[in-house]
Amino acid sequence: MKNRITELRAQRAWTQADLAQRIGVSRQTINAIETGKFDPSLPVAFRLARLLDLSIEQIFTDEQRSA
Amino acid sequence: MQSHDESQRFRRSNTTAIQLVMWTLAWAASLAAARFGPEFLWDPQDHPVSSWVAVVVNVAVGLGWITAFMRFLRALDDLQRKIMLDALAVTLGVGWVVGFAYFVADAAGLIPYDLNIALFPAFLGVVYLSAFVVGSIRFR
Lengths: 67, 140
Description:
By secondary structure, chain A is mainly alpha-helical. Helix content of chain A is 63%, strand content 6%. Chain A has helices at 5-11, 16-23, 27-34, 42-52, 56-59, 63-66; strands spanning 2-3, 60-61. The radius of gyration of chain A is 11 Å and the shape is globular. By secondary structure, chain B is mainly α. Chain B has two domains: 1-76; 77-140, no CATH class. Chain B is built from four helices and no strands. Chain B has helices at residues 2-41, 48-75, 78-107, 119-138.
């Protein structure tokens, strides 16, 4: 699943550790999500969306659907 | 408010990790008491109740350790839990396969010496640690 977290995080000048602390996960988790190695659970996706004031669809893209 | 909730979540994960370490140490200590107590601290012939108490305490502390481990797993974030569960799955699989392979090989008379059963949990510990390190590197 593709996502825009790196871009959205950069716009806010947040480090991976900043974002991780704000949504209550480890920095390793943010890195794994950004590099596409790991898809977050729905609660984490909702926390991200709430924090960034966006919808989940604006952050994550279903590659199978967009292909 | 949200940031406060998230930092609380992070603190809870640290607290459960510390609790797990304490329970692990307590379990190891109670195991050592049950194993070496009859040899060095009391005479098992004269005081069988002491041996029974040591075993019961070991099992009770073991149950506490299991509960602490479940709390620890629940407090982890998604990725950490995945790495941990993957490592547990590998450990269970390897333990099952190697354990039964040893059992049938021993029954067939292919193993000329007796292995100390205490080596098996130690072997599982090494497998678990290795699988955990591999998982952590994979998602680094």
